[in-house]
Design goal:
Elements lengths: L1 H25 L4 H33 L3 H48 L11 H44 L1 H21 L3 H24 L1 H6 L3 H53 L6 H43 L17 E12 L2 E12 L3 E6 L5 H8 L7 E6 L2 E2 L5 H7 E4 L10 H6 L6 H10 L3 H7 L14 H15 L3 E5 L7 H13 L4 E5 L5 H4 L4 E6 L2 E6 L1 H5 L4 H9 L1
Parallel strand pairs: 3-8, 3-9, 6-7, 7-8
Antiparallel strand pairs: 1-2, 1-4, 4-5, 9-10
Helix pairs in contact: 1-3, 1-9, 2-3, 2-4, 2-9, 3-4, 4-5, 4-6, 4-9, 5-8, 5-9, 6-8, 6-9, 8-9, 13-15
Length: 583
């Protein structure tokens, strides 16, 4: 129990550190541009604050028929207009740079932490969580907070300067304006508390929407082949409606804050204006020009204080979104333990009484014990759902909450560092992933590798003729769109062969290939020496199965049989039944 508490505390500390790093990327790492943009905004705000003062002087000069004062006021107004617009020109250069670096820096920090997560982090909707966080959530932070925070600070300076000017004109006016502003701020602040909650709720809905769209697009061929366009449209519409309904609530909350703020400050502005009119009419030192100035200054007081609750709520929402991302990034960071998995195994891989369940009470593997000797080539066979892919996933360290033990030589997988594990083990799956890059870059993973080795790996994977026709610089396209399904699979196999890992795991990697190519690649894998190979296969070909050092037969998550092809066929057991049915 104490260990669990310690782990939770460590995870919380890690999440807090990541959150601080993310928030720091917005301002701390971007301090110079922030300060320059803020100073320019403050200067522009001061020019705007003195504009009503100049107009007030002009009105009073006109009332007094003083041409000299009118001329002086005109020169002052020209100076204010020129200064404000010149400052805006400079501001428009620096502010976009601040936003660019802040947003790019935030995404960079988030993605750098994302790269340290474990392989199993993206199961169960994990992908949509991070896609939403790096797209929709970042846009929300940028548009509702970052774009508004500097102008809000500038407007706060306008507010302070306006109060000071009112104080110089008339102390009673300044007191009245302060009272009205305080009442309005309290009202608008109380009404703005729900905005952060609305933003977080919208982010969660968007995450689900992204997951739904990703599922529908990836399953598009299935939808068409089963004429399921109607149900697909229904699923999309429900998710789309749910997201937009959440946005409606958020927008209504924003508009409610604005309405309440406007009502409060309309009342405050009218109160101060009528009070100024009363002071002017009773000869208490307030001029007609002062009345105009008061009306304009109250607008400048109302605007920043009126928008302040919204900005503060947006700041809270931004911190909440950042906190959610930090918690997700801090979980399963993929570091594992500190022990190093040997780059070349001496004994092999052993599993003792391994059990695993994705959901409590629904075991996928149960009391599974098996050994894969170093340098051996082993086949994993069994019916669909027998646990073959899950077993390979565990061997890659995707899940650490299994029962029993999994060891590489004498290193327990839970104690192994993920870096050393990934250096030793390579996994080739049914689903392929290719970058929008050249054939060479996809095979080498952008590393500097001798061309001869690259061509040899591609030849072993059945792509010799393709390379001779198209060359190593052939563009694979987005997701390998310029290649056929079989060609994409062969590129992934060549990538794994080139790496030369001492342990190779193949999860039905040849299932998308034609029989001749699949046989060629299987022979290449069988011919490897000094490499421990575990191959999940559904093709029960006697000639090839006889070449495997061992065959492990899974049934309902358990090892029901194991041995060589001849030994298993002599038993008249489950394997022989599978083989017979498959012929």
């Amino acid at each position: 129990m104490g260990q669990e508490v310690g782990d939770v505390g460590e995870a919380d500390a890690h999440a807090k550190a990541i959150k601080g790093e993310l928030l720091g990327s917005l301002f701390g790492a971007n301090r110079g541009l922030f300060v320059v943009s803020l100073l320019l905004c403050l200067i522009e705000s001061l020019f705007g604050t003195f504009f009503p003062v100049a107009l007030s002087t002009t009105i009073d000069a006109a009332a007094a028929a003083s041409l000299d004062d009118i001329a002086a006021s005109a020169l002052f107004l020209v100076f204010l207009i020129a200064g404000a617009n010149l400052t805006k020109l400079v501001y428009r250069h620096f502010m976009p740079l601040f936003l660019k670096r802040a947003v790019a820096g935030y995404r960079r920090v988030a993605f750098s932490h994302l790269l340290f997560k474990g392989i199993g982090s993206f199961d169960g909707g994990g992908q949509s969580r991070y896609v939403s966080a790096l797209t929709n959530d970042v846009t929300t932070i940028e548009t509702t907070y970052l774009e508004r925070v500097i102008p809000a600070i500038g407007n706060c300076l306008v507010c302070v300067a306006s109060f000071f000017i009112l104080l110089v004109v008339s102390v009673p006016l300044a007191v009245t304006a302060t009272a009205g502003a305080v009442i309005a701020v309290v009202v608008s602040t109380l009404s703005g508390k729900r905005l952060a909650e609305r933003q977080s709720a919208t982010s969660a809905r968007n995450e689900r929407f992204v997951a739904q769209v990703a599922d529908l697009i990836s399953g598009f061929p299935l939808i068409k082949s089963f004429f399921a366009e109607g149900p697909a449209q229904t699923l999309f519409d429900a998710s789309n409606e749910d997201l937009e309904e959440s946005k409606v609530g958020r927008r209504r909350t924003e508009q409610t804050i604005q309405i309440v703020s406007n009502l409060g400050f309309n009342f405050a502005t009218l109160s101060v204006m009528f009070f100024a009119a009363y002071l002017c009419a009773t000869g208490q030192g307030v001029t007609p020009g002062n009345i105009y100035m008061v009306s304009q200054l109250m607008v400048r007081i109302a605007e920043p204080i009126g928008e302040l609750p919204g900005v503060l709520a947006a700041r809270g929402a931004a911190r909440d979104l950042t906190g959610r991302l930090a918690v997700a990034l801090a979980s399963d960071c993929g570091e594992g333990g500190s022990a190093d998995v040997p780059e070349s195994l001496g004994e092999g891989i052993s599993l003792e009484h391994v059990g695993f369940a994705y959901e409590e009470g629904k075991e996928v593997l149960s009391d599974l014990s098996v050994r894969f000797p170093a340098g051996s080539c082993n086949a994993l066979v069994g019916a669909s759902g027998s646990g073959k892919s899950t077993l390979l996933s565990l061997l890659m360290g995707a899940q650490g909450d299994y029962d029993g033990s999994i060891s590489y030589d004498d290193v327990e997988l839970r104690d192994a560092s993920r870096e050393s594990l990934y250096r030793t083990v390579s996994l080739v799956r049914q689903d392929t992933f290719l970058f929008d890059a050249t054939l060479r870059e996809n095979v080498t993973m952008f590393a500097d590798v001798d061309e001869g080795r690259v061509r040899e790996a591609l030849a072993k994977a059945g792509l010799k003729d393709f390379v001779e026709e198209h060359g190593l610089d052939y563009p694979c396209g987005e997701g390998g769109s310029n290649l056929s399904g079989g060609e994409r699979q062969r590129v992934c196999i060549a990538r794994s062969l080139l790496r030369g890992s001492s342990v190779l795991l193949f999860d039905e990697a040849t299932s998308a290939l034609d029989q001749a190519t699949a046989d060629q690649i299987t022979r290449s894998v069988l011919d490897l020496t000094g490499t421990t190979r575990v191959i999940v296969t559904h093709r029960l070909d006697a000639a090839q199965l006889k070449r495997f050092d061992g065959i492990v037969v899974l049934r309902d998550g358990r090892v029901c049989e194991q041995g060589t092809f001849d030994e298993l066929m002599a038993k008249d057991g489950y394997f022989k039944a599978l083989y017979t049915v498959g012929q």
